[in-house]
Design goal:
315 residues, mainly beta, globular
Length: 315
Amino acid sequence: CERLQLIFVGTPLDEPIQCLISDGRRRIFTAAGRHIHVWKRGKKVASFVGHTAVVTNMILFGEHLISVDEAGYLKVWESRNGELYGEIQFDAHSFKISVMMHPVTYLNKILLASQQGTMQLWNIRTSTLIYTFKGWSNPVTSLAQSPAVDIVGIGLENGKLMIHNLRTDETVMSFQQDWGPVTSVSFRTDGVSTVTTSSSVGHIAVWSLDERRLVAMVRDAHDGRVGGMEFVQSQPLMITSSIDNSIKVWIFDQSDGSARLLRSRCGHSAPPTMIRFPTVGGHALLSAGGNDRSLRLFSVVKDSTSCELSQGQYV
């Protein structure tokens, strides 16, 4: 986050990576197709095999890794050795899991949200259903834990953000963004009571929890769907990623509550149409994009010096 430097590059997989997660011990878990792969510094060290359909979601839960596939199977793995700890099957027609999370202080429990709009609280250790939430009859697209215990942010496909109390099953407040589905939700944890939501068109909204209103917008933060958004713990920094092949760090230091771009790393958002080595030494690679209309210079020696020479899609 401090410099956005490239540390290592992993071996390409045969299938697209659907999701990834890090355990904080320099291990990265990636789901590609029906398999989950474990990486250390770019080298694959293990694979978890057992799913019969494409894995769509993963979370780390203590010493366990929880994964969900398209067939409705939820599997609990021992993250250290890949042994299967437990398994729960869901009917995709009545409860197709879209996103999941572990509410803080909820021992051995995870919150599952579905494309049908309902949510369930499960005890993973005993594989028992604890509670079924009423829901909103609209697909749940994102979940986020707030700094307050029992309170979570729930993003819906219709653009609504619900601030919900899990203990009482009551909605504390709600917000509506006008740019389509809420693709991700994140709460600030540095003492400022705000929450951000992202959209499928690349915009980001900043909401005040104290005033219960929209305080700022970051339009065209990305050139496409914002897939991930997370505040750095106890800092006014937010990291976002998108299908436009970029990762950006934003800092909230503006008087109106909005954010400005602090640093970013970007590549072509569409396949390049021309690639050339402009110098004899071959230390740099000149690349021109097609649909993204950008001209970029990539260094093959020091990746941090790579840059865009054009004005991208605005040319």
